[in-house]
């Protein structure tokens, strides 16, 4: 009788261990499934360890409508700050982004991305001037500007700077950050692209961010 009971206990112990191990593996696998997704693999974009919030702001779009932080939600936004009288950096950047847009359109992904050009020269860049300038590169690109107080509030929130520099003719030019800010669909500052903006790698990174690669 004692031998029979002893054999029964020995036979049950491995089953208990197996069940415990299976439960532990199931819990581990479940935690893997519900954990945060792996970050996208990008080649040229510099992504921050954690996206940063952008403070409230209001600018005026080229079409006369207001542009606020709510307009940055629901898309990946690539925002570049410059001015229409810029002799080199701004037109080169927008020309590169035009090529990026064409590549995204060929993948059917332009509904997930928007490009935004913000002028830091509101004295000269009227809505009409902005509309003509940006529309020359791509009519789907957004364009906006604002007062210096509005622009300074936003550029500081994005980690960018700009300054007007008088020239010898009595006019001025504008020095500004040359990086393009990457804003995620939650409206947070997620990273940046630094020049030179090569259309191929930039397009590939944006597709990776949208989950299309």
UniProtKB/TrEMBL annotation:
Tell me where in this chain the Thioredoxin domain is found: 48-213
Which residues are recorded as binding Cu cation? 86, 90, 176
Q: Which residues cross the membrane?
A: 12-30
- Keyword Membrane among UniProt keywords: yes
Q: Which UniProt keywords apply?
A: Copper, Disulfide bond, Membrane, Metal-binding, Transmembrane, Transmembrane helix
Q: What InterPro entries does UniProt report for this protein, alphabetically?
A: SCO1/SenC, Thioredoxin-like_sf, Thioredoxin_domain
Molecular function (GO) terms for this protein are:
metal ion binding
Cysteine pairs bridged by disulfides in the record: 86-90
Taxonomically, the superkingdom here is Bacteria
Protein family (similarity comment) = Belongs to the SCO1/2 family.
UniProt protein name? Protein SCO1/2
Which species is this record about? Answer: Dokdonella immobilis
């Amino acid at each position: 009788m004692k031998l029979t009971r002893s054999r029964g206990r020995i036979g049950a112990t491995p089953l208990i261990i197996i069940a415990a191990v299976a439960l532990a593996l199931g819990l581990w696998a479940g935690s893997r499934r519900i954990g945060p997704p792996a970050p996208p693999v990008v080649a040229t974009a510099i992504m921050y360890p954690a996206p940063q919030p952008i403070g409230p702001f209001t600018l005026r779009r080229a079409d006369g409508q207001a542009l606020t932080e709510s307009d940055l939600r629901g898309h990946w936004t690539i925002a570049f700050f410059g001015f229409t009288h810029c002799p080199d950096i701004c037109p080169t950047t927008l020309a590169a982004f035009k090529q990026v847009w064409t590549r995204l359109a060929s993948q059917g992904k332009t509904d997930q991305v928007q490009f935004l050009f913000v002028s830091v020269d509101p004295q000269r860049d009227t809505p009409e001037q902005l509309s003509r300038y940006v529309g020359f590169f791509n009519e789907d690109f957004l364009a906006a500007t604002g007062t210096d107080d509005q622009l300074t509030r936003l550029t500081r929130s994005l980690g960018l700077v700009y300054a007007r520099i008088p020239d010898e003719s009595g006019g001025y030019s504008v020095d500004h950050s040359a990086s393009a800010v990457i804003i995620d669909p939650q409206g947070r500052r997620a990273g940046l692209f630094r020049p030179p903006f090569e259309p191929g790698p930039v397009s590939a990174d944006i597709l990776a961010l949208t989950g299309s690669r």
